[in-house]
From TrEMBL:
Record-given protein name: Class II aldolase/adducin family protein
PANTHER family named in the record: 3-OXO-TETRONATE 4-PHOSPHATE DECARBOXYLASE-RELATED (PTHR22789:SF0), FUCULOSE PHOSPHATE ALDOLASE (PTHR22789)
Domain Class II aldolase/adducin N-terminal residue range list: 1-173
Disulfide bond keyword on record: no
GO biological process: pentose catabolic process
The keyword S-adenosyl-L-methionine belongs to this UniProt entry's keyword annotation: no
Length: 216
């Protein structure tokens, strides 16, 4: 988790002590501590939390522990929650824009759109409720006037998706500069989603070499 936090900042999708990461474990979940720079963070700084909101250790959990807890509790398909303030995703989120299927890769988040959650103050139950709503049937969402959340079955997958969401957001901002781009039809996006599932497209970090599908 510490390594993933450092990679998140080094990749350019996060800055300073913004963002946070959690992973499910047998006792509940581990979450990054609040307000500690990733380059100073050590594994013993991670905070063990229970789903009832109690925690152990000397560090205080991320201010966003509620959405980490609620997502891990409500989404058995998810092992990792990663939140960051990537610049282009946040730019769109400042305008409460959903990313539409202007590009086929929008489907990497599991549907035809990457929704933007309604604004609520950071660290609140209201923000968690809004995020869960925007994440319905999705692996990523934007957070209004705040940032983005990407989910995964592994740390590597969640980080890869967050980088992909940021790339899509950047492309969308640039495409909008030339006018409203055309949107792929729902029928075409259904084909893309089917094709991605068949090929485990964009999911390489989740797969061992032995599991990776062979090319025809
Ligand atoms: P924490 O340092 O409390 O995790 O907060 C960072 C953040 O991004 C809040 O949304």
């Amino acid at each position: 988790m510490v390594e993933t936090g450092r990679r998140m900042n080094a990749s350019g999708i996060n800055q300073g002590t913004s963002g946070n990461i959690s992973i499910r474990n047998p006792h509940g979940f581990l979450v990054t501590p609040t307000s500690l720079p990733y380059d100073r963070m050590q594994p013993e700084d991670l905070v063990q939390m229970s789903f009832d909101g109690t925690y152990e250790g000397s560090r205080r959990p991320s201010s966003e522990w509620r959405f980490h807890r609620d997502i891990l509790q409500r989404r058995p398909d998810v092992e990792v929650v990663l939140h960051c303030h990537s610049v282009y995703a946040t730019t769109l989120a400042c305008h409460h824009k959903t990313i539409p299927s202007f590009h086929y890769m929008t489907a990497v988040a599991g549907g035809t759109t990457i929704r933007c959650a309604r604004y609520a103050t950071f660290g609140t139950q209201a923000l968690s409720d809004n995020a869960l709503e925007a994440l319905e049937d999705r692996m990523a969402c934007l957070l209004g006037q705040h940032g983005q959340i990407s989910l995964g079955r592994s740390l590597a997958a969640a980080l890869a998706l967050a980088i992909e969401v940021e790339t899509l957001a950047r492309l969308y901002v640039q495409a909008l500069a030339l006018g409203e781009p055309p949107i792929l039809s729902d029928a075409e996006m259904a084909r893309v989603i089917r094709q991605m599932k068949n090929m485990s497209y964009g999911q390489a970090p989740d797969l061992d070499d032995a599991e990776r599908p062979k090319a025809d």
